[in-house]
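Batch job 17 of 40 flagged for manual review because the log was empty.
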Amino acid sequence: MQRTDLSAMSRLSADIDLLAEGKATGFVRVPHSVHRSAYGWIPIPIVRIKNGEGPSVLMQAGNHGDEWEGQIGLGNLIRALQPKDIKGRLVILPSANFPAAMEGRRTSPIDEGNLNRSFPGDAEGTITQQIAYFIEHSLLPGFDYSFDFHSGGSSLTYIPSALAARSEDPAQMKKVIGMLKAFGAPVSYIADAPIGGGGKTFTSASARQGVISMGTELGGGGLVTPGSLKVAEDGMRRVLAHIGLLQGPVPAPTQTRLTEIGGDDYYVYATDSGLFEPLVDLGAEVKKGQPAARIHFHHTPWREPEVVPFKRDGLVLCKRVPARCERGDCLFHLATDVAG
């Protein structure tokens, strides 16, 4: 793919050459003039590893700052890989929304921006909009593949999963399913559109730039577990080998359960504010109409809890973590096996 260099349109710039051979580490500089630093910039870490011809791959984590598994996994990969280990070009952005990552928050402490709802961005907008603009218009063009490592963050926990958006192109869909199977998470799912994205996610940005993309939901709950990190790190290596970038031995393949998610009936939302009591756990197979949760009203404890049901059959893929909830908070979402 021909690289389209629009970096002059962005106020952000990388202080390393992202096309050169070899390995280099540096920062994407986000100009940020504040009281303590009149001519300062926010340093978003970035790494380039390149060795000759081969696929061009962008891997990122920290799109949401409180999702740790991808950030740790990519940090370990950065330290381990040398140019001799690959054929092609690998660029890694391990903490894409760096201000959010430093605060351990889903959104930026500077502008409350949710990076994964900010694409295609704005070159002259808020800090988060500027980061999104740089990623979509200056960074993504020219890559063959992109990977975006998410987890449930502070408010959700997932069965460690890999995911991708559904494509109308059968050839691209075949490639994406091959990548999901190579990654080998316990569950993989296809979504008709990125959850809540409305075209504003990194997945949508990749699609607009002609880049084949895959993501993950690697656990969450504000924690990192040995199991979820192993899924992340082994999957990263297997999928990089699958697309022809990583050379040499990789972790043994594992089976994934291929599923899909659809519309609103796959989700359970809090119907009132109160305390969330889950009635099932991750991995449960549930039926339409089955009680999913009780909402307790601790401010009026004599009131009977409200029972919230599942709207369809499915596998419990995701569950809310904090007990305190408000009307509209997601409590669960389901997945169903792909037919055939």
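Reviewer: the log was empty due to a logging misconfiguration, but the result itself is present. The helical segments are 68-80, 98-103, 127-139, 170-183, 202-208, 226-242. Unflagging and moving on to job 18.
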